[in-house]
Amino acid sequence: MSAQRISLGIAPAYDAGGDDFGPLLVQHLTLYIYQDLLGSKQFAPSLLSPGGVYTPLDTSWLTEYVQDRPELDLLLVSTLKSTVTDKTGSTIAIQLDLLDAHTGDTKSTWTVTDVTNKNKSDWFARGEAAVTSAINGSSNQYGGGDILTTSTDFEKQPIGHSTAHLAAEIRDTLPAHLGGFVAAAGKPVDPPAPAVAPPPCTMHTRITYDYRHSVSHSYTLLANNLEESTTLVDGVSTFKAPEGPLLLQFTVNDAPYRLTKEPVYQLSTFHSCKKDTLVIDLGQGGEAHQHWE
Questions:
Q1: Which of 13, 123, 149, 265 is 20 to 30 A from residue 31's alpha carbon, by CA?
Q2: Which residue range(s) make up the domain with 252?
Q3: 50 with 126, same domain?
Q4: CB count, 10 Å around CB of 192?
């Protein structure tokens, strides 16, 4: 039996640290983990969006959320802990939990860290101020929403360097925590990105609130880091995208009252020109489910 790539669902990194920089770091960390694993020969990563009610303290919601994703083997849960500062500097710690996607059982738990020099104690504030300024400019330009991308503003800051280092540590330590797990041969998994991207084809994206029998008519959308919501007509965004992995980041501006949504949705799918409409449905807990039509 030939080896197959392990299908890994990546939950949004969770901020349990209470530091001012936490929301900024975890949103970028989630994206960095996905991007670092995207070209892996061992893993097929998928970004998950389980909604604003999600917490690592109760992973039963996460395993329930992925019940319609039978192709997933494992789930990666990352949690930002409180920063520890002493005479030598500050230590940022990320706790990782690897779960069985079908049972929710924890297979392994470990921690990765990044240490900053005491002389850089103000790097959190400086990095946050620079990126917040850039985000506000983007929000004004695109009509609202805190869409976060791997912007050069963030990457240039020490906080960006630390986040990238943490993501790389997660990527490098992950194989050692599989406990001998191997994906079943013959299991369908999205193929890796081709070396040469095929020509793009037209696709449509629609965001729905099916439990309210309604459709979003106001959202901000990035597809593979390109702003694609300027074409929004009657709730449908139309643009061209190549076949292969498709990264979507969006915020909804007309969510139903009391919907516990994520501040920024980040999810991934595999785009094939055989189907041209991606429907993203937000449930009552703010969870995002997707299917192609």
A1: 123
A2: 201-292
A3: yes
A4: 14
d(CA 8, CA 62): 13
Domain end among 162, 177, 192: 177
pLDDT digits (tens, 9 = 90+) for 12-55: 999 999 887 788 889 899 999 999 999 899 999 999 999 999 99
Please report whether residue 272 resides in a domain. yes
Tokens of 238: 């139309």
For the chain, report the end-to-end CA distance as a whole number of angstroms: 33
Q: How far apart are CA 40 and CA 35, in angstroms?
A: 10
- Strand, helix or coil at 288? strand
Sign of the CA dihedral with 285 first, then 209, 253, and 267 last: positive
Do the beta carbons of residue 286 and residue 51 sit within 8 Å?
Answer: yes
For 191-238, the pLDDT digits (tens) are 655 666 678 999 999 999 999 999 999 999 999 988 898 889 999 999
Q: How many domains does the chain have?
A: 2
pTM of the model: 0.88
Distance in angstroms (rounded) separating the CA atoms of residues 121 and 155:
18
Residue 196 φ/ψ, nearest 5 degrees: -120, 120
Cα(54)–Cα(78) distance, integer angstroms: 12
